[in-house]
Amino acid sequence: MNQGEKKKKKLSVICSRDTLDGAYPSAVLAINAVRMGMDATIYYTFSGLNVIRTGYAKKLRFYPPGTLGAIPGMSQLATSIMKRKIEKAEIPDLADLLEMCQLEGVKLIGCHMAATMMELGVEDFIEGVEIANAEDFLKMAVESDLCMFT
What we know:
Layout: E1 10-15, H1 20-35, E2 39-44, H2 74-88, H3 94-103, E3 107-111, H4 112-117, E4 130-132, H5 134-142, E5 146-149
Parallel strand pairs: 1-2, 1-5, 2-3, 3-4
C-alpha cells in the first residue's frame, strides 16, 4: 500500500438462522457496507446455510416471538404478512437481494463443518458461494474492522 492510500475497511457478518429476520439483516448490512466502499463477507453456519441453498431463499419464514409463534399456522400467516410488508416497502425479495449482494461484491461463504454435518456440497448452494472452515473465517474476521452476528 502506498503512503497516501487508505486501507479498505472490512465487515464480517455471521448468519446462523434461516428465517426472514435472520437472513435480511446480514444481507442488508453487507450490501450497504460494500456501497460505502468496504469489503463485506457473510459467513452462513448451522441453519443459516439454508439461506444460501439453491431455491431456499423463497422458502424462508418469519416466526413471531413468544407464545404467538407456537400457535399452529401462525408462522405461515406471519410470513405472508411480512412478505407483503417487504414488497410494499419496495425491498427486494431475499433471493434477489442475495444476487445483488454477489453482483456488488459481497462474499457469501458457507461453513464447512455445518455443510458436512448436513451432508451438503458446493452444488447444493447458489452459484458463487464459497465453503470455508471456521479457522478461515476467523482469519478474515480478525482482520475486519467490524464483525457482527445476525
